[in-house]
Design goal:
eight-stranded parallel barrel, 18% strand
Length: 317
């Protein structure tokens, strides 16, 4: 397997293509997911990110009492990574999250990834439990992505949680998230930027940004990173608009701005089919500007659907 940073170095300035997919809901066939990945393989993605989803809770009446039962709605990240690598012969990059894991469980999870030949991980705090406003760490788990990052770095150095002797080091290339418009929980952009600076100082090898629709946000973010000594690759994350509803949903969930020209174009549409076309055309223009700027990789949040991403990639690669 090859590290993300190696792919970027070997591309020698050429912009690469990558995607993020989500596991199917428990009980659904993996074949639908594979069928949606297949059309995107013509663009030769060096890697495919696979999200990880923490536990949720369902309510059941047990002995006359309503009890919350933990469940995982989208399990299978490790298995899907193995299937992707076997079927498509590309690297799989799993998300590793704080939420729902103790440090011991995280260590075991990372060894599972190491044993199947995965050399890249994206380290994230993760979301709160569904229905909770605030993130609460697992008892014995990590509260911040920086803490989780430190654990991965320690394993790369051959240090385990409770072992007195050194173990065989892992070899993970570690990605972290960056927020051109700041993380929604940060009081301001500068505080959020300092968190990012700390993660890079701790050993992050590259950054993948939250989605954005205004390229200037990315350009300014990269400029600030470079001026303040953050020199690791910064990969822009992209998602084409697909429905009118996303004009309100995406800013609420991800706390980002949607440019007025895009808002006006969407509002002029008569159907979501028209909105999807507007989203594709806007993203194509974004991609062309990002390539001219020298973005190392264009990373698409596909939600495991290929149609819009395929049309965009056909126009630019």
């Amino acid at each position: 397997m090859t590290k993300i940073t190696q792919y970027i170095q070997e591309a020698k300035g050429k912009t690469l293509f990558s995607i993020e997919i989500i596991p199917p809901v428990k009980g659904e066939s993996i074949q639908t997911l594979m069928n949606n990945i297949e059309p995107l393989m013509e663009f030769q993605p060096p890697f495919i990110e696979v999200t990880y989803h923490r536990e949720e809770f369902i309510e059941k009446v047990i002995n006359g009492r309503i009890e919350k039962i933990p469940t995982r709605k989208r399990p299978g990240t490790v298995g899907i990574c193995a299937s992707i690598m076997n079927r498509f012969k590309v690297d799989a990059v799993p998300h590793v999250i704080c939420g729902g894991f103790t440090q011991e469980e995280t260590e075991d999870f990372l060894f599972d990834l190491h044993y199947i030949g995965i050399d890249n991980v994206l380290v994230l705090r993760g979301d709160p439990v569904k229905g909770n406003a605030a993130f609460v760490p697992e008892k014995g788990g990590h509260a911040y992505a920086s803490e989780l990052l430190e654990q991965v770095v320690s394993m790369n150095q051959g240090k385990l949680l409770h072992e007195e002797t050194e173990s065989t080091p892992t070899n993970f290339c570690i990605g972290v998230a960056g927020y051109p418009e700041k993380h929604f929980e940060a009081p301001n952009f500068q505080v959020d930027f300092e968190y990012l600076r700390r993660k890079v100082a701790l050993g992050a090898d590259y950054i993948v940004t939250q989605m954005f629709f205004d390229n200037q946000k990315y350009f300014d973010f990269v400029k600030k990173c470079r001026e303040e000594g953050i020199n690791v690759p910064i990969i822009p994350g992209l998602k084409p608009l697909a429905t009118r509803k996303q004009l309100t949903v995406l800013p609420r969930i991800f706390h980002l701005d949607i440019p007025i020209d895009l808002v006006n174009a969407v509002n002029a549409c008569k159907s979501d089919k028209d909105v999807k076309q507007v989203g594709i055309e806007w993203c194509i223009q974004q991609c062309k500007e990002l390539m001219d700027f020298g973005a190392p990789i264009l990373h698409f949040y596909t939600m495991s659907k290929s149609e819009s991403t395929q049309k965009i990639a056909q126009a630019i690669f």
